[in-house]
Amino acid sequence: MHDATFLIAIPLMIAIRLFADRLDRERIREHVERSGGQVLDISWNPFGRGWFGSRYERIYEVRYRGRHGRMVEATCKTSMFSGVYWTSDSAPADFDDRSEEARCLGCGSTIQPGNARCPKCGWIYKDQ
After folding, report:
1. Residues 44 and 33 both lie in one domain
2. Residues 27 and 85 in one domain
3. Which of 66, 69, 74, 120 sits CB 3.0–4.6 Å from 88 for a disulfide?
4. How many structural domains are present in the chain?
5. How far apart, in whole angstroms, are the C-alpha atoms of residue 88 and residue 64?
6. In which domain, by residue range, is 113 found?
7. Pairing between strand 58-65 and 38-44?
8. Strands (E), the chain
9. What is the pTM of this model?
């Protein structure tokens, strides 16, 4: 009886963790894209910045291209009920400066300050 419970519990816990990881990655991707960025890589890091004292949050290292084409590496925590919390100084909202030239996330062309549309491919930045 106990062996059967153990054989069911382990795969169930693994399935729940994989499902949570998938939801976490989607939540992080949406957060970065809302600020005009593009996610390049998301890696789970159980001992990343802010791990001590974290009970239910999972920590991820995120590499993304900011709205102005700048490459950024940042650390965030997330869980089913807490949203996305950035523990590094490189959160997407930190790169909201529209006074410099930007790189189009669609084709890589230069977008002049104050413009939301790429002159080459027509990509449009939409602020939420």
Report:
1. yes
2. yes
3. 74
4. 2
5. 14
6. 98-128
7. antiparallel
8. 38-44, 58-65, 71-79, 83-86, 102-103, 110-111
9. 0.63
Residues 80 and 112 placed together within one structural domain of the fold: no
d(CA 9, CA 11): 6
CA angle, residues 34, 84, 14, in degrees to nearest 5: 120
pLDDT tens, the chain, 128 aa long: 567 787 888 888 888 888 888 989 999 999 999 888 999 999 998 887 766 666 778 899 999 998 888 888 999 988 877 788 888 766 776 444 444 667 777 788 877 666 667 878 877 765 43
Cα separation of 82 and 84, whole Å? 7
In this structure, are 88 and 107 located in the same domain?
no
**Residue 45 — left, alpha, or beta (φ > 0 → left; ψ -120 to 50 → alpha)?**
beta
Same domain, yes or no: 37 and 63: yes
Amino acid at residue number 63 = R
DSSP class of residue 113?
T
